[in-house]
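User: Here's a structure from my thesis project, written as structure tokens. My advisor, Dr. K., wants to see whether a designed sequence matches the one we expressed. Can you design one independently, without my sequence as a hint?
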């Protein structure tokens, strides 16, 4: 179902309530039903138990992990590094956990439909962050041990693990997915290139990265947030006020005080009249706000930014009582869109950076420009989501950089620390041919 049709369904709910029901439309977005033996969430549940055991038994050692630890890996003593190395590659709990994570990363996951309910969902999100850091730690140590192919394979598992949240259609869940993808991609950049790398590993990561980059994660979840959660909640609140004191009981002093504070009057009929006017405005603007956010967040940032900024100004200019819910939700939705755009920029830069590694291995030289990657490595070049133009590519004496200009849409020369909204850079040292 395309985005415009989904938005139309929302209007149909309001305009033709006899034809559509909230429950019926919600079914359009229902999670798939997966048998337990095919559900990666069940596999992850077993991994949760192992992680709990690891966290208790090796609490003191976990602070030395390259990712998620409390110390910089460079500052960890050789003795402690050796111990972490032994835990990751020889400890039965760690080995089993990594096996389960690799298995789950290749499966579809539905958490809320499992027969044995996993921990509360916020805990699931926390577990997934920890798993990704654990996998990146393993990958880093594999790379340091010279096993680059194993390191790349482990990092791809970490990247795929974020998709375990793909059926959890809430903005919070997808922000966690974006965060785990960021961790994985930033780590992949740190894995050094090597002459003996299997090209198939690079191509697998490139293919997966392209797939992830082309998804409209936030736009899709906003549709569900609106239809399944937002509109039913607004209508429920509206109905509760219209049914206020339907039994004609005497109001308590506390109830009178609350009505006066919220509506400026304690008269029930006046309250209902105010509520009708308020909710018509509130629901109307909520539909407009969500419809535009859904539409524009499906577009690259350079196309959606101006209209979303205009919408933000409209919200600020409205009386607070006409858009209080939209005022509260809008900043979070905009930030989610920005974060997805940042991730898209990271993914695109990584896609090109890895393609350059493939090109170097094929031709024993680095490309002079990005168009040389087409079609021998990439079918097409990713476009910077912040400009709509090609990523910037520079080859220096001992390094190359590929970068997006980032949220501020200003070219800072590929310097990531220069501004609060810096360029988004893939940076690596050259392998010089002998």
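Assistant: Designed independently from the structure alone:
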């Amino acid at each position: 179902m395309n985005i415009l049709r989904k938005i139309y369904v929302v209007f149909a709910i309001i305009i033709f309530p006899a034809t559509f029901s909230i429950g019926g439309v919600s079914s359009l977005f229902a999670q798939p039903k997966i048998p337990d033996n095919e559900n990666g969430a069940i596999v992850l549940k077993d991994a949760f138990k192992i992680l709990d055991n690891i966290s208790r038994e090796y609490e003191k050692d976990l602070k030395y992990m390259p990712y998620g630890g409390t110390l910089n890996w460079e500052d960890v003593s050789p003795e402690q590094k050796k111990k972490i190395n032994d835990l990751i590659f020889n400890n039965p709990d760690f080995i089993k956990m990594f096996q389960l994570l690799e298995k789950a990363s290749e499966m579809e996951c539905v958490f809320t439909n499992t027969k044995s309910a996993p921990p509360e969902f916020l805990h699931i999100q926390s577990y997934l962050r920890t798993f990704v850091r654990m996998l990146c730690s393993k990958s880093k140590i594999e790379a340091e041990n010279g096993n680059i192919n194993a390191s790349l394979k482990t990092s791809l598992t970490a990247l795929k693990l974020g998709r375990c949240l793909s059926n959890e259609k809430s903005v919070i869940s997808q922000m966690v997915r974006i965060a785990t993808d960021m961790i994985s991609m930033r780590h992949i950049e740190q894995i050094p290139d090597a002459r003996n790398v299997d090209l198939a590993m690079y191509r697998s990561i490139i293919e997966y990265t392209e797939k992830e980059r082309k998804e409209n994660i936030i736009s899709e979840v906003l549709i569900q947030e609106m239809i399944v959660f937002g509109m039913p909640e607004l209508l429920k609140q509206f109905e509760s006020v219209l049914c206020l004191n339907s039994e004609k009981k005497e109001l308590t002093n506390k109830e009178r005080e609350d009505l006066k504070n919220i509506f400026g009057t304690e008269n029930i009929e006046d309250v209902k009249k105010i509520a009708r006017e308020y909710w018509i405005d509130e629901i109307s603007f909520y539909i407009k706000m969500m419809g535009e956010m859904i539409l524009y967040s499906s577009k690259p940032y350079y196309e959606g930014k101006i209209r979303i900024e205009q919408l933000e100004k409209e919200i600020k200019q409205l009386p607070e009582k006409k858009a209080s819910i939209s005022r509260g939700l809008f900043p979070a939705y905009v930030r989610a869109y920005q974060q997805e755009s940042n991730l898209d920029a990271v993914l695109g830069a990584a896609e090109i950076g890895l393609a350059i590694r493939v090109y170097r291995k094929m031709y024993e030289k680095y490309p002079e420009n990005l168009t040389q990657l087409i079609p021998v490595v990439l079918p097409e070049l990713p476009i910077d989501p912040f400009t709509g133009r090609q990523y910037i590519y520079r080859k220096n004496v001992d390094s190359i950089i590929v970068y997006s200009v980032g949220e501020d849409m200003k070219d800072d020369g590929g310097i990531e620390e220069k501004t609060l909204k810096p360029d988004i850079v893939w940076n690596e040292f050259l392998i010089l041919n002998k």
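When you compare it with your expressed construct, this may help: Confidence is low (pLDDT under 50) at residues 1-26, 114-119.
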